[in-house]
């Protein structure tokens, strides 16, 4: 049986806007058993992460094709105006022109590119980006992670092509991650339009989009957390450990995998990057409720933090 | 370092101490408060929009950590007593296939529980619990009252915790 009063306080205090701590104190003081009931329920709440299934959201094929359902309405309506203007298609043919050049970084290396139009692009490790000498308003992210600080020009929007998708800026700072399994974008300033000619999903600052095995999803992200790798830290709100392990690998230039049990877990918080992987994992793994084990040149993240086992002596 | 947060801490020291005692800290309340102070001094947090709720939350998190580590220790001691410590397990061993199947079955079961609650309850729960959106914002988004959102959340939580307890005893 669930203690209803304690459950109500769990829900109340879990709200990011909760501020009536005095009322909570008074309730707790009523009976010492209340604090215990609250602790027990909070612990169960924390363990729910492992069993809450991801939520794939089916997307309409085209923005004007399907009448938005109630579900889509609340998800997308907040994004504001859907891009009305269509932009020129990025043709496959132009990718092969001599004006196209690519910029790459090795794992663990970062690089900053300043374009003549005032746009800057920062590449995280193990990343490949293609640019066009003839068209400063275009970039293709083939692999890895890049943060874009775009000089906005409404008449000539900056476009980033990622796999089959196109992101179009509307005055913007945003970060894109592209791996063979997933594409993720977070917007920290301005607005980005995802696939302006198809779904045309507007992503204002504080919104993120992920396209992976679970489908296409839009979620909230703390604007300050976007592209935080540039400041030597990774900031997450309820992020999948699978994604985080890839971010760590890219940022530190090491191979990181996670066991299926660890992959099913989620993490909220800030991880400070450290060039020394052993020192990094000794601090970061327990923070995520994980332990890290060195396997050859790779690191494996496992469920459960064991204080004894996370700093191998090798 | 005399940031606003430290000043707010000092001004509300008594209230925070009372909260920690009510939360079950007992004789350790003073020590925990000292821990909080050290953390505040060590970290340059910059301006925090709602400093007092921030400090209360910090205190609450300290107590949650304490509960978690003590229950983990109990579990470890119990494992030791039962001789099931798993000390010999290969640390590099990946999760077994059957464990993975169980994990997927659990996710399916949870999916079923959420579906049966109805679309609005599921939506409210996901928005609150997974995406961390406040109840007031959810109520505005859906155009329903705050009470409705509260009731939906309680319903979803009851169902999910019941499922959790059932899975734990399987």
From TrEMBL, chain B:
Organism (species): Sphingobium naphthae
Alphabetical list of InterPro entries matching this protein: RNA_pol_sigma-70-like, RNA_pol_sigma-70_dom, RNA_pol_sigma70_r2, RNA_pol_sigma70_r4_t2, RNA_pol_sigma_r2, RNA_pol_sigma_r3/r4-like, WH-like_DNA-bd_sf
Family label: Belongs to the sigma-70 factor family. ECF subfamily.
UniProt cross-references to PANTHER family, sorted A to Z: RNA POLYMERASE ECF-TYPE SIGMA FACTO, RNA POLYMERASE SIGMA FACTOR FECI-RELATED
Transmembrane annotation, as ranges: none
Database matches in Gene3D superfamilies: 1.10.1740.10, Winged helix-like DNA-binding domain superfamily/Winged helix DNA-binding domain (1.10.10.10)
Protein name: Sigma-70 family RNA polymerase sigma factor
Annotated RNA polymerase sigma-70 region domain residues: 9-73
């Amino acid at each position: 049986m669930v203690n209803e009063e304690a459950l109500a306080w769990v829900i109340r205090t879990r709200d990011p806007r909760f501020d009536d701590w005095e009322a909570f104190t008074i309730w707790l003081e009523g009976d010492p058993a209340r604090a215990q009931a609250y602790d027990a329920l909070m612990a169960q709440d924390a363990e729910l992460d492992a069993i809450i299934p991801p939520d794939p959201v089916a997307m309409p094929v085209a923005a004007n094709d399907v009448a938005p359902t109630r579900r889509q309405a609340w998800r997308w309506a907040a994004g504001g105006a859907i891009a009305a203007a269509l932009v020129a298609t990025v043709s496959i043919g132009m990718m092969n022109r001599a004006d196209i050049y690519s910029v790459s970084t090795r794992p663990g290396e970062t690089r900053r590119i300043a374009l003549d139009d005032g746009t800057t692009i920062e590449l995280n490790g193990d990343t490949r980006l293609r640019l066009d000498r003839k068209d400063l308003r275009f970039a293709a992210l083939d692999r890895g992670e890049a943060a874009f600080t775009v000089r906005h020009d409404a008449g000539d929007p900056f476009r980033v092509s990622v796999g089959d998708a196109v992101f179009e800026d509307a005055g913007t700072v945003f970060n894109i991650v592209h791996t063979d399994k997933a594409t993720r974008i977070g917007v920290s300033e301005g607005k980005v339009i995802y696939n302006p000619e198809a779904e045309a999903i507007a992503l204002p600052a504080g919104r993120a989009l992920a396209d992976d095995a679970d489908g296409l999803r839009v979620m909230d992200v703390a604007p300050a957390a976007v592209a935080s790798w540039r400041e030597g830290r990774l900031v997450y709100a309820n992020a999948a450990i699978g994604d985080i392990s890839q971010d760590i690998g890219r940022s530190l230039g090491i191979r990181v995998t996670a066991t299926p049990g660890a992959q099913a877990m989620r993490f909220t918080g800030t991880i400070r990057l450290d060039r020394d992987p052993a020192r990094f994992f000794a601090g970061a793994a327990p923070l995520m409720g994980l332990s890290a084990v060195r396997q050859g040149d790779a690191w494996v993240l496992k469920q459960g933090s064991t204080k004894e086992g996370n700093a191998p002596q090798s | 370092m005399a940031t606003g947060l430290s000043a707010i801490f000092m001004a509300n020291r008594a209230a925070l101490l009372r909260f920690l005692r009510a939360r079950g800290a007992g004789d350790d309340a003073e020590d925990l408060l000292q821990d909080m102070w050290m953390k505040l001094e060590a970290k340059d947090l910059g301006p925090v929009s709602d400093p007092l709720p921030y400090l209360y939350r910090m205190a609450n998190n300290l107590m949650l950590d304490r509960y978690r580590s003590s229950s983990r220790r109990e579990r470890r001691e119990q494992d030791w007593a039962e001789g099931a410590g798993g000390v010999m397990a290969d640390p590099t061993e990946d999760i077994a296939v059957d464990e993975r199947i169980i994990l997927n079955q659990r996710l399916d079961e949870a999916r079923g529980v959420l579906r049966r609650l109805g679309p609005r309850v599921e939506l409210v729960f996901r928005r609150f619990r997974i995406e961390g959106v406040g109840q007031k914002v959810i109520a505005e988004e859906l155009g329903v009252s705050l009470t409705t959102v509260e009731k939906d959340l309680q319903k979803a939580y009851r169902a999910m915790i019941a499922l959790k307890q059932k899975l734990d005893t399987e």
